[in-house]
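Structure in, sequence out. Go:
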């Protein structure tokens, strides 16, 4: 009898422990899988692919900023101030067009009040297959609506330590809930030194050939654009899509020249622009003709990534209509890009 009682007490104790474990994770819900942040708790935002789905499910918003790391330094407070929105920011570093599109599709599924989308369209991802995913370890139990696989969330020791318990550690250390301005914002983590960046940049081997866009590549990029950008635009004519081509630095253009892909990239970019211009709810921006900024490496940490100052300028330019492409001006825009063909790269890299 004593052994049976002991076993029963042990089982009840174990069940109580498990239920407490589960209950705490469900109550705190650090990844916002079940509900919005609990009043009185402070939540750190730091893990895009674990937190973004919960943010778009349960937060209150009417505008979305999304894209790759090219949008991580954007500030929702700036967008709200300029456009009168109530925005969230859900970037995904290194994401393909499909990954960003699926995030937005879910956002529209959860929220029928999205008035504005600010989205970066990276040229570096334009040639990827329409079904390409750059990240193959998504926590699917967070993304679907299957309650049975939620055991991987509520009974996951790593989730409890990394997220649930960390909320309390975060609060004990005096932490306050992260703002979307700060969410994945890396601006303050780097020193910006144009000379150091230029000298540390490794130039590519010089190609003997300049490549042109093949029919296969054109079909791939058209499929990518149609499935992962345009279908959503057509499905939501009530939403204004502010799309922009991230303004990569002059180092990126040097890469294209030396690899022989300059002409091919411009051809692809032209097709991309021409595919988007017919839609009235699209505001398409490019800042490749902002030569002073693009040639000033003081705004960059590498060939692609620009700082918060430039991110703020992009939003301000959107408000002012600077860099807006239209059916009337896009031909002139592409003529101006000859700057990158005529640019004296050798002199640039020889300068101190």
């Amino acid at each position: 009898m004593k052994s049976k009682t002991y076993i029963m007490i042990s089982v009840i104790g174990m069940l109580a422990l498990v239920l407490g474990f589960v209950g705490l994770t469900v109550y705190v819900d650090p990844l916002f899988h079940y509900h919005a942040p609990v009043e009185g708790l402070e939540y750190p935002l730091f893990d895009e692919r674990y937190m973004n789905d919960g943010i778009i499910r349960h937060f209150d918003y009417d505008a979305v900023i999304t894209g790759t790391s090219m949008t991580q330094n954007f500030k929702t407070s700036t967008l709200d101030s300029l456009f009168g929105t109530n925005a969230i920011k859900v970037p995904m570093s290194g994401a393909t067009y499909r990954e960003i599109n699926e995030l937005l599709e879910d956002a529209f599924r959860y929220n029928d009040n999205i008035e504005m989308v600010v989205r970066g369209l990276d040229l570096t991802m334009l040639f990827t297959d329409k079904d390409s995913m750059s990240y193959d370890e998504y926590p699917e139990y967070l993304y679907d609506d299957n309650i049975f696989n939620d055991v991987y969330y509520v009974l996951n020791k790593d989730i409890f330590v990394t997220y649930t318990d960390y909320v309390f550690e975060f609060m004990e250390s005096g932490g306050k809930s992260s703002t979307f301005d700060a969410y994945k914002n890396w601006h303050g983590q780097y020193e910006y030194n144009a000379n150091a960046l230029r000298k540390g940049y490794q130039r590519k081997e010089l190609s003997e050939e300049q490549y042109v866009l093949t029919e296969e590549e054109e079909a791939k990029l058209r499929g990518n654009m149609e499935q992962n950008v345009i279908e959503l635009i057509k499905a939501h004519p009530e939403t204004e899509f502010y799309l922009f081509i991230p303004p990569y630095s002059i180092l990126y253009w040097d890469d294209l020249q030396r690899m022989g892909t300059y002409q091919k990239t411009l051809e692809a970019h032209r097709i991309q622009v021409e595919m988007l211009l017919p839609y009235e709810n699209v505001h398409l921006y490019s800042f490749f003709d902002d030569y002073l900024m693009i040639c000033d490496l003081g705004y960059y940490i590498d060939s692609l990534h620009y700082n918060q100052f430039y991110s703020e300028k992009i939003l301000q330019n959107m408000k002012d209509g600077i860099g807006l492409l239209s059916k009337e001006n896009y031909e002139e825009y592409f003529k101006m890009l000859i700057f990158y063909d005529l640019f004296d790269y050798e002199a640039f890299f020889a300068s101190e």
